[in-house]
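User: Design a sequence. Structure:
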């Protein structure tokens, strides 16, 4: 079954253990400094996960509304009954509606930390990683209908090709899409991340000098983006965030690949031209050598910050 962490894991779980072992918030001191947190201020963490940033804001006497598509980390946070932290299971593409439901019309700062948490990769059993053998689910929100297994087994070669080129810019998208269709026709449905991994490798078996892990990572990323409508959500969420900010309120956004970062950059430039936001980070803030050494998943992070005019 997808989306169900192991029983042993659930029995042992607690928040400090998760933060130490499964998820370290990326660029934490930089995000906190650039947010310019005010005592008594209110903030939205649109991708709260296990609350890495939210808990730091609360320590500095701010209130946080934390939103996440994945119910599991919210459950863990809720159990801790943290004062000044409100939680909502939903999609930041509905930011204005969610804020209104919580009686919020404007805030002092908003955080987006795109992508997926280390818990989701390592422990969620949803097939996010090509290094594991898990059911092909890849949904952040277990209530959504579309799973990775549906895309891989029901979409035509041309549709797969489009997803791979659009969401991973993979050079070998055509042969990989064809390998998927061939495998499922000859051998039956591709139901696990391991089977998908083998099939992708079969699609590039005649290609010389390619980094196979990079191809696998890109194709898995493309399927995850399609399953979760990630880029569509970003395009919907950012303008709503900008309108929810009060004057001098700050928008902080961390992206992990060029497709996300391009959208953030474009949005910030556009709003700067319209005099809605002032760009604070002329070039993105990136993790230093020490952070990348301690947390390799931070290596591609880019933080961009803008302030409401
Ligand atoms: C990189 S993790 C965030 C980790 C978090 N900052 C922390 O410190 O634990 C990204 C989170 O965003 C959530 N997410 C992805 N797309 C979302 C969306 N459209 N709306 C709300 N949450 C989303 C994922 O479920 C995941 O928990």
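Assistant: Done.
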């Amino acid at each position: 079954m997808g989306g169900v962490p192991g029983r042993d894991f659930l029995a042992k779980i607690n928040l400090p253990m998760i933060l130490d072992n499964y998820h370290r918030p990326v660029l934490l001191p930089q995000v906190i400094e650039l947010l310019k947190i005010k005592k008594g201020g209110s903030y939205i963490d649109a991708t709260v996960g296990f609350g890495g940033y939210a808990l730091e804001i609360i320590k500095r006497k701010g209130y946080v509304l934390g939103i996440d598509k994945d119910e599991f980390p919210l459950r863990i946070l809720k159990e801790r009954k943290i004062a000044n932290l409100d939680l909502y299971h939903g999609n930041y593409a509905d930011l204005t509606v969610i804020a209104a439901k919580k009686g919020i019309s404007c805030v002092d700062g908003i955080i987006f930390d795109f992508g997926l948490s280390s818990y989701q990769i390592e422990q969620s059993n949803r097939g996010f990683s090509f290094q594991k053998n898990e059911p092909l689910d890849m949904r952040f929100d277990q209530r959504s209908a579309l799973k990775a297994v549906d895309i891989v087994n029901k979409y035509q070669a041309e549709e797969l090709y489009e997803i791979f080129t659009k969401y991973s810019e993979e050079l070998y998208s055509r042969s990989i899409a064809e390998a998927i269709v061939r495998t499922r026709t000859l051998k039956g449905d591709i139901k696990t991340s391991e089977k998908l991994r083998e099939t992708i490798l079969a699609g590039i078996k005649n290609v010389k000098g390619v980094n196979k892990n990079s191809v696998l990572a890109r194709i898995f990323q493309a399927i995850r983006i399609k399953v979760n409508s990630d880029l569509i959500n970003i395009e919907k969420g950012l303008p709503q965030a900008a309108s929810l900010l009060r004057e001098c309120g700050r928008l902080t956004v961390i992206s992990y690949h060029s497709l996300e970062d391009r959208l953030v950059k474009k949005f910030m430039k556009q709003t700067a031209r319209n005099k809605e936001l002032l760009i604070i980070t002329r070039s993105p803030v990136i993790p230093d050598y020490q952070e990348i050494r301690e947390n390799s998943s931070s290596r591609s992070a880019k933080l961009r910050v803008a302030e409401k005019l």
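The mean pLDDT is 93. The radius of gyration is 20 Å.
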